[in-house]
Design goal:
about 300 residues, alpha/beta, two-stranded antiparallel ribbon, 13 helices, 12 strands, about 40% helix, globular, Hcy_S-methyltransferase
Length: about 300
């Protein structure tokens, strides 16, 4: 029997009503399902090669209690797929598919589940680690031109929100906010940070400031950062913008670029949630190495 989607209020309204649980890392769940992600396109490759695996991963988070699902389009770009010989029409179809796969999983839930279309940073397309450094040496205008076609394609697929995520640099944040103007879809903006600075070194106060008076921005926050950095970053985001804050940190393990593996122990602790909520967080989930088990723990403590 076909699932009937539960009617959804706009996500911005829902966040003002109370906190919601976001999903966890797409890549780690795909790896847990046996997928090989040793590819410059990372999880985006499966949009073309095995989309059923992506829907299965989304379903794992729905079962865990996630109320917002992020699409597998983080590393999906016209340039990246173009290097694999795909034309613009084919790439546009894969971007649309990313939203459809998340929507299909969301439709199986008994409560409202929203879909956030991922718009990863310019550095994700380069696949050289610069997404964690920023300072690409690329003018803001060029960054805006790079992002706009993908934003337009994702917006046309009808997500509930665009997730401008893992942004390492305040300059790219400004470019993204210009690129989404007129697309007709609300957005959230999340930076990857170290302490209370972007990965590129700018103060988060400076990075969040352009979002404060932007009506298209329904939430701001941080992702792909250490759990220990979240509380202070939430406080800055809430104070500077007055908007609901979204947070989805990594597990706390460190990535060893030379060994191409994770090191250390997880410090992701649902016990931190009360402090995050008190600071202004309204959408809470996980990023790299945070799987459905951890999201289920969050769902048990977040009063959604």
């Amino acid at each position: 029997m076909t699932s009937v989607p539960v009617p959804r209020a706009p996500l911005g309204e829902a966040l003002h009503r109370g906190p919601l649980v976001l999903d966890g890392g797409m890549s780690n769940q795909l790896e847990a399902q046996g997928c090989d992600l040793t590819d410059a396109l990372w999880s985006a490759r499966l949009l073309a090669d095995d989309p059923g695996q992506i829907e299965r991963a989304h379903m794992a988070y729905v079962r865990a209690g996630a109320r917002v699902l992020i699409t597998a389009s983080y590393q999906a770009t016209f340039e990246g797929f173009g290097r694999r010989g795909l034309g613009r029409a084919e790439t546009g179809e894969l971007l649309r598919r990313s939203v459809e796969l998340a929507r299909a999983a969301a439709a199986t839930a008994e409560r409202e589940v929203w879909v956030a279309a991922s718009v990863g940073p310019y550095g994700a397309m380069l696949a050289d680690g610069s997404e964690y450094r920023g300072r690409y040496g690329v003018p803001e205008g060029e960054l805006e031109r790079f992002h706009r076609p993908r934003i337009e394609a994702l917006a046309a697929a009808g997500p509930d929100v665009l997730a401008l995520e893992t942004v390492p640099d305040a300059e790219e944040g400004r470019a993204l906010l210009r690129a989404v103007r007129g697309c007709g879809v609300p957005v959230w903006l999340t930076y990857s940070c170290s302490g209370t600075r972007t990965r590129a070194g700018q103060p988060l106060e400076e990075a969040f400031a352009p979002a404060a008076d932007d009506e298209q921005v329904i939430a701001v926050g941080v992702n792909c950062c250490a759990p220990e950095d979240v509380t202070a970053a939430v406080e800055v985001a809430a104070r500077v913008t007055g908007k609901p804050v979204v947070v989805y940190p990594n597990s706390g393990e460190g990535w060893d670029e030379r060994a191409r593996g994770w090191r250390g122990r997880s410090t992701f602790d649902p016990g931190r949630v009360d402090a995050w909520l008190a600071a202004g967080a309204r959408l809470i989930g996980g990023c790299c190495r945070v799987g459905p088990d951890r999201i289920a723990e969050l769902a048990a403590v977040v009063p959604s």
